[in-house]
Amino acid sequence: MTEQWLAISSLFFSAFISATIAPGGSEAVLVYWVNESVLSPKMLVFVATIGNTLGAITTWVMGWFLSIKFPVDSALSKDKQRAVDWVRKWGRIALFFSWAPVIGDALCFAGGWLRLPVVTSILIIMVGKALRYAAVVLATQYVIYEFI
User: How far apart are the C-alpha atoms of 99 and 108, rounded to whole Å?
Assistant: First the structure.
């Protein structure tokens, strides 16, 4: 039971931190726990998805609060402006790519700053993140069973 708790907590916190402003390596933690077989792959994907989605919501909320002080037309850094432009063009569906390195956090921030509907934003973010983690698990299992 202790090893299961360690798997859940380390994966959750790694996934949460990876989806906020701080960089992280939740995929590496996920691969480690898949290899250890302490929990089912489905449970690991679930934990990683929830942690990463909550981190993305934190970034979304930061964008929302900053939009109060800084209107949408305020000057932004190049990366954030690119994310805002992308979200303006594609709408909520752009948040599906919140799992992507570098731009993912900026997309969540832009979604909050542009005040996209929260419930659909969360659902789209969660689906993208779940599919990414499921792909990592499948790739890990393929590598383990095919090459070892």
Answer: 10
How far apart CA 16 and CA 87 sit, in angstroms, is 22
Distance CA 116, CA 91 (A): 8
Block means of pLDDT (10 residues each) for the chain, length 148 residues?
A: 86 90 81 89 96 94 87 67 80 89 86 92 96 93 66
* Neighbouring residues of 64: CB distance < 8 A, sequence distance ≥ 6: 112, 113, 115
How far is it, in rounded angstroms, from Cα 2 to Cα 22? Answer: 27
146 is written with which tokens? Answer: 């095919």
DSSP state of 33: H
> Measured between alpha carbons, how far is 3 from 39 in angstroms, rounded to an integer?
9
Residue 81 · residue 113 · CB < 8 Å? no
Domain coordinates in residue numbering, the chain: 2-147
Q: How far is CA 125 from CA 24, 36, 84, in A?
A: 18, 28, 16
CB atoms within 10 A of CB 9: 12
